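User: Predict Peptide deformylase's structure from this.
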Amino acid sequence: MILPIIGYGDPVLRKVGEEISSDTPNLKETIANMYETMYNACGVGLAAPQVGMAVRLFVVDTTSFSEDEDLEDSEVKELKGFKRTFINAKIVKEEGEEWVFNEGCLSIPDVREDVSRKERITVEYCEEDFVMKTEVFDGLIARVIQHEYDHIEGILFTDKISSLKKRLIQKKLKNIMEGKTFQEYRMKFFGKKGR
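Assistant:
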């Protein structure tokens, strides 16, 4: 089932997610719905707060990134096969050089900005089987995970840009809050009347 994506300004996007357990009701269905919602919106990642749940869950599938013609063959192969569910994730280490990439967010449509992040991360998390894993990720995969991880920490990519850039996008953010934006996927807006 395709869920509405929560737009910028909704308090759920600012909450630190609570840990979930294997007996969380309807967890498998929720995860399936999140993947379906992400694919419908042409995203590469989606966190539970973006569909109204303040829990530590996000899904990632970087396959669509693999179609970028500027990538090396090894990068294409890595991105094409990467699909993962992250439950109760914790980034335990960030390392390497910071690098800039132009990011966007399904909850903040029509806004893209350059964001600086570390190139390599170590993450502890559970997949759907609730077996704890520790893995190292780098490059674009690490960036997508960091972006989605921020969501379960109540952080948005717009928090990581300069105050000047924030002022420049203020009108766009206000329009998103008021539902005065158009996108081809279903959204729920915090400030829209008749919500």
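The first helix runs from residue 27 to 40.
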